[in-house]
Amino acid sequence: MSRYYDLTLTDPASGKVLRQWSSHPGGQFDPAALNVTFDAPVTVGATPVHQPTIIVEGISLQDISNAQQFAAQIVNGRPVGGTNLTLKAGMKAGLPLANPAQAGLLIQGFVFQSWGNWIGTDMSLSLVVVPTIYRYDKPGNFVFNWQKGQTLADALRQTLSVAFPNTPIDMRLSDTLVASRRDIHYCATFDQLAAHINQLTGAQMAVTGNKIVVFDGSTEPPIALLQFTDLVGQPTWIGFDQIQVKTVLRGDIQVGNYLTFPVGFESAPGFLTTQHAAFPSFGKYQSAIQGKFVVQQVRHVGSFRNPDGNDWVSIFNCAVVP
């Protein structure tokens, strides 16, 4: 099987691996790998969405009898106990069109809720993951202090380094975003801070993979050139200057990245090209949607043992780049 996943739970204090389920332990495919299903949206903080959910089927009796141990608690504004979670997934070498280079980190965060279920002979562990554990009733230390004459990038680095001291920050902001007056704002959560920054400046913030990305469109981020072999179905317009595209599950495209579409078939196994004069539908060999788009929202959907191609995909909502 070409599908690949690696789900790891670690101790937040020591980094010790507490549980690990993988389709390819040691790099070799395991035909007895547990079934893992997930629905994981990733978006900018100013846009509310539901939290990623993961279900592991076929777990041990020990894990199901003490399933709540994996969830963290907030004490004095800090996460205590529980586990950190990372989910890597995509494709491994096997099927002719599978591309192992597109596999990557889909989810990283804290286990917010965990519970077990036992129906007949089926035992499962369900996990709800949050990129940041802070909530309105259990807030974090988000004090945004933007001084007159200071760049937005410097102000945000100070704020985020306090709330997330060990998280890398990918800052893609223009140096022209300088405060004309002092702005002080207290926030309880990352999403609240992201909404305030977006309303104030138009910049977007997102937790993607293992880092925080802040961008305003002034600098060009990494560009992913899609191929016809990546697509599941056809890209479609979902709003003014907004499209949705579904691809084979991939972890190498993050919120804030650019996407471009293929202009024609490249040499690939199973594809035959033809001359325009020989075949009247030659125009269909290129994507009807062209241009450059910025990824605003990603949704990863997976069911490891379901053979349907729609059960191992990434769905991207993108906006046109002017």
Describe the structure concisely for a colleague.
This protein has 322 residues and is mostly beta strands. The protein is 9% helix and 40% strand.
Jot down its keywords:
322 residues, mainly beta, 13-stranded mixed β-sheet, 3 helices, 20 strands
Return the average pLDDT rounded to an integer.
86
Shape descriptor: flat
Low-confidence stretches: 266-283
- Estimate what percentage of residues fall within beta strands: 35-45%
DSSP helix fraction: under 10%
Sequence of secondary-structure elements: EEEEHEEEEEEHEEHEEEEEEEE
* Helix and strand composition category: mainly beta
Instruction: Give Rg in angstroms.
Output: 22 Å
> Roughly how many Å apart are the termini?
41 Å
Largest sheet features: 13 strands, mixed
Specify the number of helices.
3
How many extended strands?
Answer: 20
Provide structural commentary.
The structure is a single chain. The chain has 322 residues and is mainly beta. 9% of the residues lie in helices and 40% in strands. Strand 16 and strand 17 form a beta hairpin. The longest helix is centred in the middle third of the chain and has 12 residues, at 152-163. The protein is flat.
Topology:
Blueprint: E1 3-10, E2 17-22, E3 35-43, E4 53-57, H1 61-65, E5 73-75, E6 78-80, E7 84-91, E8 104-119, E9 122-130, E10 142-146, H2 152-163, E11 169-172, E12 183-187, H3 190-201, E13 204-208, E14 211-215, E15 223-225, E16 236-239, E17 242-248, E18 258-260, E19 292-303, E20 312-320
Parallel strand pairs: 11-14, 15-18
Antiparallel strand pairs: 1-2, 1-7, 3-4, 3-19, 4-9, 5-6, 7-8, 8-9, 10-12, 13-14, 16-17, 17-20, 18-19, 19-20
